[in-house]
Amino acid sequence: MSLAYLFLEFLCHSLLGLRACSCQTYFIWHNGRNISILHGELVGIILALTLSDPAVPSTLYTDHLNSIHIIDDSKTIIDQAPCLRTLNGHSYYRWILALTTNNSLHITYTPGHSDEVSFPTRLNYEADRYASSAQRQPREILSAPIPTFFMDEYTFYSHDDGWIESNIMTYLHKSRSLSTSRALASGHQLRMALHLYDPRPPPEFPYTHAYSVYSALVQLYARSSQLPTADLLHSRKLLLSA
Predict the structure, then answer these.
(1) Which superkingdom, per the lineage (predicted)?
(2) Which of 20, 40, 173, 221 is deepest in the core (most CB within 10 A)?
(3) CATH number for the domain harbouring residue 133
């Protein structure tokens, strides 16, 4: 099973208030192939909202601009439910909006990977550095909470990918395509083994540029089950062992 490690750092670089000198860094990981850096950004905001002291005026700096827009829009009279329903990770967004209802934490945007010389951008750089260094100690990192209590009433789940909150039609198409390609690649005398093919697109006029001829020849032999692999040579008693 593939693991996507998403490390959330806050308080040390982003939650700044009257107690900014009290520095803490947290690392959390998500399990599943369907996890992206988006979930890391959202869980970082959730942790800051959960652990911040409502009595202390504080500011949370984040480089996730979409979260800033959604939080600002939620303060208007426009209903955010239809918009959130189509977003990947919408249960995390719902959790954030529920926490911001009674929390005085000020959440503001700071550019990520910026050459700007300022305190927030410097702290953002330190957050990225901590995230990179934490990958060397994966067993010591706690798993992130999954907001199943804010998911849709019916949410798809996969053993390999976890909870599926992205577009289910797109996910099913990619999942079936991947499954089919793996099944074809493992049998049929390597006729559909993708590693045999040149990943570069063919030239516009293949008869005038010959750099892809070798790849085409390999594909021709593979598709006709004539590629001289060890298995094929062994089956024809031209090789002692495969």
Answers:
(1) Eukaryota
(2) 40
(3) 3.30.420.10
